Amino acid sequence: MSRLLGPDRLADAIEPALRSAADGTLVVAVHSAGGLTRFASSRIHQNTHREDVEIRVMAVADECRVGVATTHSLERERVEAASANALSIARVTPRTAAFPGITEPRPLAAELPERFDEATAATSPAERAAAVTLALNEFPSDMEGAGAVETVADEVLVATSTGVRHYGRITRAAVSVMAMSPDSSGYAELIEGKLSDLDAAAIGARAVRKAEAGRNPQPVGPGSYTVILEPAATSTLMQFLAWLGFGAKSLLEERSFMAGKIGQKLMDERITITDDPLAADALGLPFDFEGTPAQPVTLIDRGVATSVVWDRETAKRGGRESTGHGLPAPNPDGPFPLNLRMQPGTDSLDDLIAGCERGLLVTRFHYSNVVHEKEAILTGMTRDGTFLVQDGKILHGVRNLRYTQNAVEALRNVEAIGDTTEISSELFFGGSRAPALRIRDFKFSSTTDH
Q: What residues are paired with 309 via a beta bridge?
């Protein structure tokens, strides 16, 4: 069970840091608590509870020297020590010409969706185990299941010497299931803000169906295929594009695939990608880790490169305003969109498959990495459900392949978009919500024997 500390307890803990002799102070207090129930070989083998608090103090000396120190204690003397350490570091750190100063107070949006679910925060190990049982009840006797059920509650307080005081709390729940037969596997995962929104039995059944359909996988050669990417695979492309180009730092340094192309059409006109931390079904906070209120940002508008996200430092360098996408200091990576979403289309997954003359259905990617940063070329493997589609029907499973593909080009070659979205996340305080896509000429560079 995860109990919150609350804004008053966090504010009391960080108060010594705000009385620092520094020219300015930014304090981020994060309390996170949650449970994780893992299973393998169709048996629960691990149940853990994790709870941590981190207080991160950024101190400013001589107006543009910055130091950061942290503590994992709520004790006032520990916070005072962290504050003193941050100031000591700041006094010997080189001046930062682009340092924008400490955030001034600004009101948050008037109507903020509630991101905290009491039942999810209070989920017991027995309740997570019950969800595992529901998923495993869908398995035939010749398959084994593995996966996890996780529930997490987070609370964040951002406070500054200038008077900013923003507090937020969120919950998230995830059910992931892998079904394994001797020669195939299937995977399904859903993430939402409430455990009650996740149907563990349906998630288990979905993984089983993929493993069943993938038995006796056949080899196919490398080459260009029409692909139907399920939401988890689409999210991989989106999250890499976020890292490679949707932030202002890479744009200003001309490392981004967006550099010099704002206002140009880069993708199919059906592609609209936004970052919207204020959406009702988002998992993030309504403010960033610099204390700036978060704003929705349209990154790709009907295929056109429209904008990127900004934090305070890049905004100063670029003559812009922060969009509320600053990460915790010290942050060498610049601003980042933590609540990506691609606008859905009008076709069901069955429609996407039916419209494919010959191609591959891809459940998800793994071991994805960057081949060429500015060109946004990625490589990685298919996994846990890759199928040959012929004349609008799934014929059989195929052995996994390695893809090597320009992600921008892939989204330029979109033929149709699914009508539902799912969240995938390898991020903290957020995730990407994406639909399935049908894409032509998706490039696979090699094959495997499994």
A: 247
What is the distance between the alpha carbons of residues 128 and 122, in angstroms, rounded to a whole number?
11
Which strands sit side by side in the sheet containing 184-192, from one edge to the other?
A: 65-71, 43-61, 24-40, 144-160, 165-181, 184-192
Sign of the dihedral through C-alpha 179, 180, 184, 189:
positive
Best CA proximity match to 312, nearest among 425, 162, 430, 170:
162
Give the C-alpha separation, 2 to 200, whole Å: 21
Q: CA-CA distance, 34 to 198, in Å (whole number)?
A: 17
- Sign of the C-alpha dihedral, residues 129, 191, 210, 402? negative
Delineate the domains of the chain, giving CATH numbers in brackets.
7-204 (3.30.2290.10), 217-450 (no CATH)
| 388-391-393-398 Cα dihedral, nearest 10 degrees | -10
Beta bridge partner(s), residue 414: 439
Question: Which single residue is written with the structure tokens 């195929």?
Answer: 398
User: Would you give the DSSP letter of residue 195?
Assistant: G
Share of the chain above pLDDT 70, in %: 98
pLDDT tens across 117-154, in order? 999 999 999 999 999 999 999 999 999 999 999 999 99
SS3 of 181, please?
strand
What separation, in Å, do the N-terminal and C-terminal C-alpha atoms of the chain show? 41
pTM over 0.85: yes
β pairing state of 65-71 and 43-61: antiparallel
- The overall average pLDDT reported for the chain is 96
- Residues 353 and 437: their CA atoms lie apart, in Å, by 10
Closest C-alpha among 219, 438, 242, 205 to residue 337: 242
Burial classification of residue 422, based on how many CB atoms lie within 10 Å of its CB (0-12 exposed, 13-18 middle, 19 or more buried): buried
What Å distances lie between residue 356 and 32, 121, 368, CA to CA?
45, 43, 25
Beta-bridge partner residues of 21: none
